[in-house]
Amino acid sequence: MQTCLPSQLEPFRSGYGDPAVILDELEKYFKPAKNTIYERYVFGSCKQEEGESIDNFVTRLRERAATCDYGQLKDEMIRDKIVLGVANESIRRRLLREKGLTLITAIEMCRAAEQTDIEWRAMDMSTTSPPHTEAVHAVAKQHSRQNQWKQSNPPRTETQRKQHELLAGLKGIEPIADDILVVGCGDTDKEAESDHDAKLVALMGLHARSSCGWA
Predict the structure, then answer these.
(1) In whole numbers, what is the pLDDT of the chain averaged over residues?
(2) How far apart are CA 129 and CA 124, in angstroms?
(3) Which of 35, 71, 97, 103 could form a disulfide with 79, with the two C-beta atoms 3.0–4.6 Å apart?
(4) What is the mean pLDDT of residues 131-144?
């Protein structure tokens, strides 16, 4: 049986007659104390699960952070946890390279990468023949990004000629020996990423429509 000290009864006396005050004070008194260290441990253990969207992951992080008493640092802690816990290693490297990364920017970058991956898979599934290339991504310095596609078969002169003709109208996309170079440019890393992804989508669309093949 719990015993209330006179000092603990003071709020009830000052709010005597007001049921809302009485209920609020009773809740404060009987509610178990929150273990902040444990709450932060649970938050720190969060990782994006397989198949979990970035929006669902962020929602889960916000719910966990709400009980951690981070105060004004809450957004920064969520941002850092996105970088540490995101499942895609490629997007993690991009986030680490981003200067002045904010929570909003981190979420937008993850969403963009997630959407690109969805579109890539949809385009790959819509192609009846097996893909002849695989993407190898690399981000260059000074706000430019290039992507090389390794050919699965040895280069052929006739194929290279067709590739040059097919890619003649696409700026920033060049066939080099048995590779294809895609360069994204912009004043910022984000603009370069966006420009690169747009060219990549255009190239994949051209590949899907082409009847001459790439091997």
Answers:
(1) 74
(2) 9
(3) 103
(4) 41
